[in-house]
Design a protein that fits this description.
The protein is α/β, with parallel strands linked by helices. It has helices at residues 16-24, 47-61, 95-105, 140-149, 176-180, 184-196; strands at 9-11, 31-32, 74-84, 87-89, 109-120, 123-135, 169-173.
Length: 203
């Protein structure tokens, strides 16, 4: 195995938010190679199992050298879902679905789950982070203005806490960066584990 102290880091996500979050803690990937996988939940699959599976399958799908025992590439992927009760709210397909999501989340608590996966030389590390978010009651005008902003596009649950929807959030319990798309403390720990001890389990 190559013992180079600085293996290449590949981010398997097209999300500019995850790239910005990594930059916030001084990490810049050598490459960005988004994974292309089927994100359909399995029948009866709960949200925790689903988000873990998504992040792991994304890591496996990244066209890098992570399956080569002689390679030192590190692949980092993540997946985020919003849950209201047992319902998984992914990225809305259109404005009508985004509106339905916002109406469902209005005035109530929900969970945001982000799973982070790291691969190196065929080994895997993973963490799941859950955050509870509560939104204030949303008026029809609130929802209409938010839909007009187009900020809901590509966002789990149909909103971006770091953007205009921050006005809707009364409080959170947990990791703010995980709601944005990447829990920074846990991600940094996983990357340290992969860089320092390839093949060992993350703490």
């Amino acid at each position: 195995m190559n013992d180079h102290p600085h293996p290449r880091l590949i981010l398997g996500s097209a999300s500019p938010r995850r790239l910005e979050l990594l930059a916030q803690i001084g990490i810049q990937p050598h490459a960005v190679l988004p994974a292309d996988i089927d994100e359909t939940p399995h029948r009866g699959e709960n949200a925790r199992d689903y988000v873990r599976r998504m992040s792991r399958e994304k890591a496996a799908a990244v066209p890098a050298d992570a399956d080569d025992a002689d390679a030192d590439d590190i692949v980092l992927t993540a997946d985020t879902v919003v849950t209201a009760g047992r319902r998984i709210l992914g990225k809305p397909a259109d404005a009508d679905e985004a509106q339905a999501f916002l109406r469902l989340l209005s005035g109530r608590r929900h969970r945001v789950m982000t799973a982070v996966s790291v691969r190196r030389a065929g080994r895997d590390w993973q963490r799941l982070v859950e955050t509870i978010v509560r939104m204030r009651p949303l008026t029809d005008d609130d929802i209409a203005a938010y839909l007009d902003s187009d900020e809901w596009r590509g966002k789990a649950g149909g909103y971006a806490i770091q953007g205009r929807a921050g006005e809707f959030v009364v409080w959170i319990s947990g990791s703010f960066s995980a709601v944005v798309g990447l829990p920074l403390t846990e991600t940094a720990n996983l990357l340290r584990a992969a860089r320092a001890t390839p093949g060992s389990e993350a703490p």
